[in-house]
Design brief:
Chain lengths: 179, 243
């Protein structure tokens, strides 16, 4: 993502640039927003708000200082803070703001971006690869237990877990992340 | 690469995830002491569990924005960018009701977790016949009958007779030898097929379909999965049209 491309937002070609940006980044931004806000409607609002701010503040993007994704995350984080501040007057949103998984909290920006990127990388894996990672890493099952639980031969689960991690590594590399 | 390497590579994923039996883990460790190549392969994968810890929930990235959100973002961009761009865009766009339909939060109680629990959902919008003085636009959200399906669809129709339908689907499973069919469902059991379509390997489809039914003659839309030629299939998505 280049600063030059962002500059075209102000030109007649702006619509196409915006569409390109949206298609590249909106899915992961939306996933991040749902995770942070716990509500799809609010996540949609947030995505709209973030892309609006992207073109308004396109001049402030400096590729020397941060990647586009990091910059985009900073915008999203500020937008979430604003949204929750506005929502504090509304009981339903105030309740959301109390959720523990709070992107606007003290979480260092690097870690939050990593969270976003890894979630996006996981989403690129096949369901089978994601499942073996979910069961082994997040649920703490052994490969033998996974084979028993899923009815898939143990040998398949073994090689699948290796392919799954290589796939994750590759997906992260494609996003420019060095885990 | 030796047979021992092959065994080691197969076990490396489980080893890095800490999911091997102790004997197997020992075997991997011993092999890597003498095999720099496998050790390097291990080093590539070793940081991943820490990265996974950052996520907390492995399914959060699976959430996909509704198809109409793209249009809403581009609309807002055009609107705020300037009157000239806005006018140009308005001339191309014929779906003003879409945003209102999509602006409503989905009814399902969501924590942004457990994608499996989220009912498949699809969003439809119909554009009225061109014989009307102004554009008539309608929308509907379709909900899936299978909890495992996470799908969104956008649909717009135009044309002087009947309805031409543009359907965008995300997240429907591709089943070998089966197709999806869009139905327009009217009063009683009357229904009109708008044709069949297939999804690609990623579960998405963008197709233009045509049905003989006119807007107003039907009130529901449904998508069925079936074998080609079969009269009926299994319903996977359905929803009311908002007139």
């Amino acid at each position: 993502m280049s600063a030059a491309l962002l500059k075209t937002l102000q030109t007649d070609a702006g619509d196409e640039t915006m569409r390109t940006l949206y298609r590249e980044y909106a899915p992961e931004l939306y996933g991040f927003a749902v995770g942070s806000l716990g509500d799809r409607g609010m996540a949609e609002e947030l995505v709209q708000e973030v892309f609006t701010r992207v073109w308004r503040h396109a001049d402030s993007f400096d590729p020397e200082r941060a990647s586009f994704r990091t910059w985009l995350y900073g915008i999203a984080r500020n937008a979430i803070i604003d949204m929750k501040r506005r929502g504090a007057a509304r009981p339903a949103l105030a309740a959301q703001a109390a959720e523990p998984e709070d992107a606007s909290g003290d979480e260092p920006i690097e870690r939050a971006v990593l969270r976003w990127q890894v979630a996006a990388a996981l989403a690129r894996l096949t369901p089978e690869h994601r499942q073996v990672i979910r069961l082994a890493h997040f649920q703490g099952l052994t490969l033998r237990e996974i084979a028993e639980q899923t009815g898939v031969p143990l040998g398949t689960i073994k090689s699948r877990s290796s392919y799954a991690l290589r796939g994750l590594r590759l997906a992260l590399e494609e996003m420019g992340v060095e885990p | 690469v030796t047979a021992a390497c092959n065994t080691c590579r197969e076990l490396l994923g489980g080893y890095v995830l800490g999911a091997l039996d102790p004997a197997e883990a020992h075997e991997v460790r011993r092999h890597m002491e003498t095999c720099p190549e496998c050790a390097r392969e291990h080093d590539d994968l070793a940081p991943l569990p820490a990265a996974l810890d950052a996520v907390g929930n492995p399914d959060v990235g699976l959430e996909r924005p509704p198809a109409a959100l793209e249009e809403a973002v581009l609309d807002r961009f055009a609107r705020e960018k300037g009157p000239a761009a806005s006018r140009a865009r308005r001339a191309r766009r014929r779906r003003p009701r879409l945003r209102r339909v999509f602006a409503r939060p989905l009814p399902a109680a969501l924590g942004g977790v457990a994608i499996g629990a989220i009912a498949a959902s699809a969003v439809l919008a119909l554009t009225g016949s061109s014989s009307d003085p102004g554009p008539r636009e309608f929308g509907a959200r379709l909900t899936g009958s299978q909890a495992s399906t996470a799908a969104y669809a956008k649909l717009s129709a135009a044309g002087p007779a009947g309805t031409r339908v543009r359907l965008t689907v995300h997240g429907l499973p591709a089943v070998r030898g089966e197709v999806y069919e869009l139905w327009c469902v009217g009063e009683g059991r009357t229904r009109w097929s708008a044709g069949t379509f297939r999804v690609d390997g990623r579960g998405t489809a963008e197709v233009e379909l045509t049905t003989a039914a006119r807007l107003g003659e039907y009130h529901r839309l449904s998508v069925e999965r079936k074998r080609p030629g079969a009269a009926r299939g299994q319903r996977v998505l359905a929803g009311e049209i908002v007139y």
